[in-house]
Amino acid sequence: CTVLLASSIFGALCYAQKLPATAGQPRAIALKWLLSNCEVGEGQRFRLQMLEVKAELEPLFLEALERGPGEKELADLERASEARYQQRQEVLKNTRLPLTDEDRKAAQAVTREQYVAQEKEDFVLRYKSQAVSGLGIVGGPKAGAVLSLLSKNEKSPLRLSALEALKAMAGRNTNKKGPQ
Asked: CB-based burial of residue 120 (10 Å sphere; 0-12 exposed, 13-18 middle, 19+ buried)?
């Protein structure tokens, strides 16, 4: 499972690095954010770009949270996952890897379909989590209401992300008021 998750994260991060985004393209900025790992190489500068177009980003992040990734992103992920699966199988043939026989056999027993399905599940969750995080950065009252509902859903895997996003929104609102 750890091997699957690490591979999935690495693949999505590599894919996200290839996406262009400029401050004048809210949709490109949103997609870059959704396909990245929060602050990979961009940090505060990217967050400032997001704040410049926050009114345009909020509905995009709300839609991403509701719908998840689009067909193109999922098709790209599936192709990349299949290639990574094949590479993984070749690497697992190397008996010099620091794996126990049990771990090696367990990893080799994972079928292509299982691997791709796990990658897809991880990707969709990460994509939606990034949407939640993005709402914490740019969201207004509508985003706050959606995040509040999500944060109260004990069964949601996005619950903790929603709580963190609400904290970020509260911190952003506190900073606006300044010292009194």
From this structure: middle
Instruction: Report CA-CA distances (Å) from 96 to 84, 89, 93, 108.
Output: 20, 14, 9, 15
142-152 pLDDT tens trace: 999 999 999 99
Hey, what amino acid is at 25? Answer: Q
What is the token pair recorded at 167?
Answer: 């904290």
DSSP label at residue 179: -
The Cα 31–Cα 21 span in angstroms is 8
Token code pair at residue 77 = 């992920």
DSSP output for 82-99: HHHHHHHHHHHT-TTSS-
- Residue 45 or 84, more confident: 84
Q: pTM above 0.85?
A: no
Could you tell me which residues come within 8 angstroms of residue 34 by beta carbon, excluding any fewer than 6 positions away?
61, 64, 69, 127, 130, 131, 134
Chain segment 97-134, per-residue pLDDT in tens: 888 889 988 999 999 999 999 999 999 999 999 999 99
Long-range contacts: 106-113, Cβ < 8 Å, 24+?
107/3, 110/4, 112/82, 112/85
Number of other CB atoms surrounding residue 43 within 10 Å:
10
DSSP H stretches of helix in 35-178: 43-52, 54-67, 71-92, 101-109, 112-138, 141-151, 159-177
CA–CA dist 160, 74 (Å, integer) = 25
